[in-house]
UniProtKB/TrEMBL annotation:
Keyword DNA-binding: no
Keywords: Hydrolase
Organism: Pontivivens insulae
Protein's recorded name: 3-oxoadipate enol-lactonase 2
EC number: 3.1.1.24
PANTHER family: MONOACYLGLYCEROL LIPASE (PTHR43798)
Span of domain AB hydrolase-1: 35-264
SUPFAM superfamilies listed in its UniProt record: alpha/beta-Hydrolases (SSF53474)
MF terms (GO), sorted A to Z: 3-oxoadipate enol-lactonase activity
Family matches, as InterPro entries: AB_hydrolase_1, AB_hydrolase_fold, AB_hydrolase_sf, Epox_hydrolase-like
Length: 281
């Protein structure tokens, strides 16, 4: 990873948390007065947030959730809904005795957090949607989405497929500069259970519904962070979604799909400013 700022938080602690989607790995960083709960995208785990935490230092406590079949979390062969993921996220909050927190995530994690905010708004102090698909529609999946969803079980073991995912997620210069993360990205996918990981990927791609149609229902302060070069989720749609939220904020940053890896300092700046204006008393 970039490691631009030395991590000053206490050593992270890993927890195995029982949820309705199985036992999920949750990594706890820091001891700040506000807790930020984050869920990563498909094909990634909690490591994508390391530089964000390094940049933000000891100001916040972070709980980073590996999604089912990702990182060190359990997975199964059954598919699940985004509401199921939101329930699991709330169960993680229960485990840590959190009545409410700042919640969010990247892509899949953003969808998960948005559903939690729609289902239980009182539990959400603020919502952070990083590089989140706003128009994903299981009823009309695109060709690329169908290819990824149906071929993931067999293709994950191939370098070609993993490189294709990496190039969709990250700019070439970021992959070149972050050799440690690039290796970790490949290692996680190689070590994952292909059946469970493919079930999770199908769940996200083929069981979702457009989030943009529900942005007006969000009753909490909402920050939408988008990559300016994200071909999968065009920035114009992200900006429109932010405007639809009653208390929406929009933060475009450089790079492609995983902004928190490509430009953690810009994400940290936007997130800190958003929390200061919407959460701080």
């Amino acid at each position: 990873m970039n490691a631009m700022t030395e991590i000053t938080t206490a050593a992270p602690v890993s927890h195995t948390v029982p949820t309705s989607l199985g036992r999920l790995n949750v990594v706890e960083h820091g001891q700040g007065p506000e807790t930020i709960v984050l869920w990563p995208s498909i094909f990634t785990d909690h490591h994508i947030y390391e530089d964000l935490i390094a940049t933000m230092g000891t100001s916040y406590r972070f709980l980073l959730i590996d999604g089912p079949a990702h990182g060190l979390s359990e997975g199964g062969s059954d598919e699940f809904t985004m509401e199921d993921c939101a329930t699991a996220m709330s169960e993680v909050m229960d485990y840590f005795n959190l009545e409410a927190a700042i919640i969010g995530g990247t892509s899949w994690g953003g969808i998960t957090a948005a559903h939690l905010a729609l289902m239980w708004p009182a539990r959400v102090k603020a919502l952070v949607l990083m590089n989140t698909p706003m128009q994903i529609d299981a009823a009309r999946p695109g060709l690329k989405a169908r290819f990824i969803a149906t071929g993931a079980r067999w293709a994950l073991t191939t370098t070609t497929f993993r490189n294709g995912v990496a190039k969709s997620f990250f700019s070439d210069d970021v992959l070149a500069a972050n050799s440690t993360y690039a290796k970790a990205f490949h290692a996680m996918l190689k070590q994952a259970n292909p059946v469970s990981l493919a079930a999770a990927i199908r769940s996200v791609i083929l069981r979702g519904s457009p989030l943009i149609e529900r942005m007006t229902e969000l009753a909490v302060p909402t920050l939408v962070i988008a990559g300016k070069q994200d071909a999968m989720y065009p920035i114009a749609i992200q900006a429109e979604a932010a405007l639809l939220a009653p208390n929406g904020h929009f933060a475009p940053v450089g790079g492609k799909h995983i902004s928190v890896v490509e430009h953690p300092e810009h994400v940290a700046e936007a997130l800190t400013r958003f929390i200061a204006s919407e959460v701080a008393e």
